[in-house]
Design a protein that fits this description.
Blueprint: H1 25-30, E1 43-46, H2 52-57, H3 60-66, E2 69-73, H4 81-86, E3 90-96, E4 99-102, E5 111-116, H5 120-125
Parallel strand pairs: 1-2
Antiparallel strand pairs: 2-5, 3-4, 3-5
Length: 132
């Protein structure tokens, strides 16, 4: 450990239990309690430790209204997520270099991206999506 964290052999890890509020994204956004106005949501990052589908169920109105790019930890492996997002007009893609490439089938990617069909032309023109 000294090689990476010289002099840090006395580091102690402590875990603390706490309770936090869980709210649906749609409810949180509908209350307009943000300091900065939320007029357009371009992207959402989901890291919900296996609860991605439940998160998305609480975000349906936001997804329909804003059609954001969705980056999901666990890619498309969480049961039900890909089908649910497909029903809202999304398709799955993965990063290759500096672009997203549509991918079919379940993969082992650490992170994956869901792109709404309405954004394909804009993302392609910007050079962040390859259409094949």
């Amino acid at each position: 450990m000294d090689r990476w964290m010289g002099g840090m052999n006395d580091v102690t890890l402590r875990l603390y239990e706490f309770q936090g509020n869980i709210r649906r994204l749609d409810d949180e956004l509908s209350e307009n309690v943000f300091t900065v106005p939320v007029k357009r949501i371009a992207a959402i990052k989901i890291d919900a430790e296996g609860f991605e589908r439940q998160f998305l169920q609480g975000s349906i109105e936001t997804l329909k209204k804003h059609k954001p790019l969705i980056m999901a930890e666990s890619g498309n492996r969480t049961p039900g997520v890909q089908d649910m997002l497909a029903s809202f007009g999304y398709f799955y893609s993965e990063r290759s270099g500096d672009r997203l490439i549509p991918v079919s089938g379940i993969t082992n990617a650490i992170n994956g991206f869901f792109v709404h069909h309405d954004n394909v032309a804009r993302y392609s023109a910007a050079g962040i999506l390859r259409n094949s």
